[in-house]
Amino acid sequence: MDKFKEHNEKLLQSIDILMEYPSIESERNVYLELENAVFLMPVVIENKEDMTILEGRVVRVTPGSNLRVAQFNDEEGASLYPAFTSMDEVDKWEVDLEQNDIYLLEMDMHSYMEMLSENESADGFVIDPFHYNLVIRNRQLARYQEILQEEKDREMLRNPMSRMMDELRDHPSAELEEKIYNAFASFRFLMPVIIPNEEDVESVTEEQVATIKEDGEMQVIPLENESGEKVFPAFTDLYEVNKAGIDLAAKEHYLIEMTFERFEALIETSEGVNGFAINPFTHNVVIEAPQFAHYHELLLEEEQRQEKARLAAEEEAIENLEDAEAYQIKKDAHNEELEKVLSKEMDAQGNVHRAYLLEKEYLDKTHYLVVMDKERDGKSILGDLRDAAYPVLPDKESLEFLSYTEPEAQEYVKDVTPFYEKSQKRGIFGLFKGKK
């Protein structure tokens, strides 16, 4: 297959849809596909040293090279640059390239826009003039750029499933495929349908997503690939639906939500349909009927995994409850001892008043706060603080000194009213943390 035709396959599909079903949306889709397209433009190159031959008569040239570009005229005499999408389309020109010393320059949309900005005599370019003859004029380029910007904005809102499909297309892996299959269990696709009888529509949203009555009738038109196999379309979001060029404003045309299970049931009752294609105009990931069993296996494994995780969480909750009860017993006993300590006035070198226990975290991360009457320099008060905290724990060395600056200590106690009130009356705090 011609590599240029293969590269431009999505553009060609979008142009086919535009030609058969002209609409604002189908035109928009062509503009979007132009961004990634590669064209061939016939040129005569004055200095052959400026060019690099890629394949046959296809070349690239050094920027600023002196070129003569073949131009076509439309019915009104306007000059247009030709943009061929494949070698097959170039052949339809019926010009002997070698005899006329013509080469084919690889071009993209930005290259054409740059040329048009430098040549006021050209009115645009024409895609495949001997087939589609699709003209993109200068005045349309502003709209093209607007659509690209809109697309970037919409890209931020695309469905997560669509992003996963992007990743699967660009970086296929069994792990990602399994992840997508597991996501099917809770995912809702959009499928275009025709509902001939309006009374069969129970409700419909602004986006034309309909809910059909239980006994309502609908028609689904499957897609057919090059091999003649039929599949139902499954779109992840409205962004993907729009690429199909379907006019949802037309009478009887709607979208309905579909789950994996609904597709499975629909395919079982639809003769000749072998699966469904996810985003057929972007990703075209086909899930065929033989794969359904594999999906159910993955779904069962996921359910078993979730059940195992649920049971483990329950066991952990029970253990935490038992730990919490044991902790409360330990805490009550500890506080009882602390009350005995705090019931006595402590006078370490005549400066330390009290050692207060401040529970901030669980078990071994208990904090001890020492409140002092007056300021001293850090070195001299540190010993006082350790002495003051000593009665709380049997070993002074098990305490880690954290801070003796007022702002830092207040940060620990500001949400505990009694300590915070005392902080307004005392000048220095010492904060310790019990080590394991």
TrEMBL record:
Keyword terms, alphabetized: Coiled coil
Domain SseB protein C-terminal, first and last residues per copy: 337-422
Domain spans labelled SseB protein N-terminal: 26-141, 164-291
Coiled-coil residue windows: 296-344
Cross-referenced InterPro entries: SseB_C, SseB_N
Keyword Membrane attributed: no
Protein name as annotated: SseB protein N-terminal domain-containing protein
Organism: Catellicoccus marimammalium M35/04/3
